[in-house]
Amino acid sequence: MRFHHLAGRVWLCPGDPDPEAVQAGVAVVADERGSVMIDAGQSPAHAREIRAALDDAGLPPPRWLVYTHHHWDHVWGAAAWPDVEIVGHVTGADLLRAEAARPWSHRYLRDQVRANPRLAPSFRARALAVDSWEDLAILPPTRTFTDEDELPVGVRLRHVGGAHAPDSTVVLVPDSGVMLLGDCYYPPPAHLRGPDDGPDLALVRRLLDDGYRWYVSSHGEPMTRDEARAAVAAA
């Protein structure tokens, strides 16, 4: 696991390409004034690997941690970043407080899957990702916003919502020409997905902007603006 330079101040650490692992990638906007980490890793163990990769790349430690949305594979590693301000949409804060109150354990996961078998892929991935439930702390954002926000280092946040998660946020780095999409255009999570649900291409079209050359989703390879436009046109 290591960080790769994408453009300008933006570095990426990809997640596991195996979809059954449900491991999102993370990004860092490196800045000597304090870096911005986008998403926290799927577990304390994953976050420790990200921290080691950050050190290996010689990147400045994060001062802010931005949640693209509240789903577990983006936030369960947050406790590994104790000295950061956590920033996220106000809707996600309420959802994460509810998640934090659940009695997470292997037994709880089994009971939930027994009650709703459609949860099995996600909950199986959680069981494999977390090596110690005592280390897990689900942390809501300490700084929230509604429509847009901007951090002191020129990183902009824009709430877009959508079917995948109501708090979905895109992260804009204008000086680097990079837009970090999280999972915003993905269909709903598998246990909530209907037969007609698919990617939200209309949202992607609205987000495409000549001021941004790179578009990065959390579970895919970065795409140039031309590649993104071609993909939308071909769908």
From TrEMBL:
Pfam families cross-referenced by the UniProt entry: Lactamase_B (PF00753)
Lineage: superkingdom: Bacteria
Coiled-coil residue windows: none
InterPro entries per UniProt: Metallo-B-lactamas, NDM-1-like, RibonucZ/Hydroxyglut_hydro
Metallo-beta-lactamase domain boundaries: 23-219
Ranges annotated as spanning the membrane: none
Protein known as: Glyoxylase, beta-lactamase superfamily II
Organism: Micromonospora krabiensis
